[in-house]
């Protein structure tokens, strides 16, 4: 910012949403002198185009000789507050994007193009409920009181604290959120509540709306840009003081936040998989610090990172150990499918135990949820004679057979083809359909239980608008008694007539080669098990697996998070994964395999060379910093080594100091000569490999 009171600044520092990590200098023309302010959007010329720029500072000198003029101001009042500028700068510094890209992630899509006051023309659009019933609060239980007392104190003292609210399902977490928000509102402050995905949490949203009425703004990805903007405007104008929304709602334009809440904090949807690759939990932490307010992370299955921080005092751990209604958690039985295979001499989809349980449930007029985290019919097709497995033409992935469409589909790029009748390689006619997806489970159940009403919910059956609600509606009304589905049905659903949950295979997530596969398996099993026995009838859960001794499965069956944590943290420590280090994943991709590998090798070498001096590292890596804080691994082919025609290699950095690690990488990338046609993506704290 300029310091002189006498002379107006000559130049503005402008952020532009391009993948170039620098600010651009533009001259402030005479006619705009005194009218340019930090946080404003302006039009600037950029390589023969006119683009939107964001003013982030001033300067009395320009870094280049031929400075161009700012062409015009888009909004007189700055769009971005000082807080938003700080937050987006933090994002740029942390997640390898430009400041402009970070800013555009933080504002509604409707105004990115430089449009003015988009919303004012769409009068009459009102997204809040017309007739709402303000429902009362519950008298908090002893555990809830304790949690609330602490949070409320923090709100009143205007302090930053992150709370990890660890509570089993139905222990009253949501009630704690509601009352904490109520308190913040009474103090004239506002609240943000993040949920993993709005469409999967209708019941939670409902409760917020019925408690707070039209003070609530609901923001989700399916809103049209116009509606999104309108909600954004309602918040900015102070008409809505609570936001309920998915990941990007963390950027809601509140001016005086009193509390931020992240429900189901362990969910991977909080990490954006595109530039900027931010984690909403970390952004929320920054925002809570900027606002001097508490951040509450609620979950029944904390992420390893969060629980570790809570154990080491960085977060404050608050526990809710009892269910509100004192209802017991459902009993979980594990079926060893290896035994099933030995006694029945064939690979069965359903064990006898699960079949009997389904039959029983139907007889009693109750409902069951059958869970398998894989869609499609047959998950791979091979030739019995030559062994060929049919793969995608553009990706290194196997094609999945979809019965309804009679097509082979690549789940990564959407490529489809008609299944061949003869082997494309050896021309034999022995094509086999193997592996198991939800479509097959559904068809198998209807074969075995003729007359049973089944519906299936996965991303194949929910592409049309409203299909989601339709499927759940039928299940709720009892029109269907069996619901088959992927992880879409694992979360949040509350159907009192469901007395049985069957997990067709717990091994799907367990076998994914990723350091989080155990954690994901535990989370999914815990969540899906929580769908059973929510009414007055006790619930039963049957889990089929070929790995009945795995700690993820054993501890999930006992609803024992702490035991799971104990086991998993040992392995993270031994293999040097988060929370013991931060990871940075660098993906190099290009259409030419050799060029991709060569570039990745060069980059890896350049990073290693930039590490000040070889020496014993935090692991037995080839080269690490002397102080033992950085390790470079790879390049190695990505788990999916080719995608959409691009070959992909990963370099993985493991470091104890994220800031130092990123600074080093930034320096290396700044001078790295990248061949034409090669793309490099950096993912800080990646969610998967
Ligand atoms: P969670 O978010 O942990 O799953 P909820 O807050 O949804 O738990 O509480 C479960 C149920 O118990 C809800 O129907 C809620 O309205 C009710 N409930 C929560 N707290 C109380 C309380 N203190 N007294 C009575 N009912 C409560
Ligand atoms: Zn063949
Ligand atoms: Zn593909």
Helix-strand layout with pairing:
Elements: E1 11-16, E2 24-27, E3 41-46, E4 49-59, E5 68-69, E6 72-73, H1 82-95, H2 99-106, H3 142-157, E7 162-167, H4 173-186, E8 190-194, H5 202-212, E9 216-219, H6 225-236, E10 242-245, E11 257-263, H7 280-291, E12 295-299, H8 304-311, E13 316-320, E14 331-336, H9 337-344, H10 352-363, E15 367-371, E16 380-383, E17 400-402, E18 407-409, E19 416-417, E20 431-434, H11 438-448, E21 454-457, H12 467-477, E22 482-485, E23 498-503, H13 507-510, H14 517-529, E24 540-545, H15 551-557, H16 561-575, E25 582-590, H17 593-610, E26 630-643, E27 646-655, H18 658-671, E28 679-684
Parallel strand pairs: 2-5, 7-12, 7-13, 8-10, 8-11, 9-10, 11-12, 14-24, 15-22, 15-23, 21-22, 23-24
Antiparallel strand pairs: 1-2, 1-4, 3-4, 3-6, 16-20, 17-18, 18-19, 25-27, 25-28, 26-27
Helix pairs in contact: 1-2, 1-7, 3-4, 14-15, 15-16, 17-18
The structure holds adenosine-5'-diphosphate (ADP) and zinc ion (2 copies).
What would the keywords be for this entry?
single chain, 689 residues, alpha/beta, GIY-YIG endonuclease, Rossmann fold, 4 domains, 7-stranded parallel β-sheet, globular, disordered N terminus, binds adenosine-5'-diphosphate
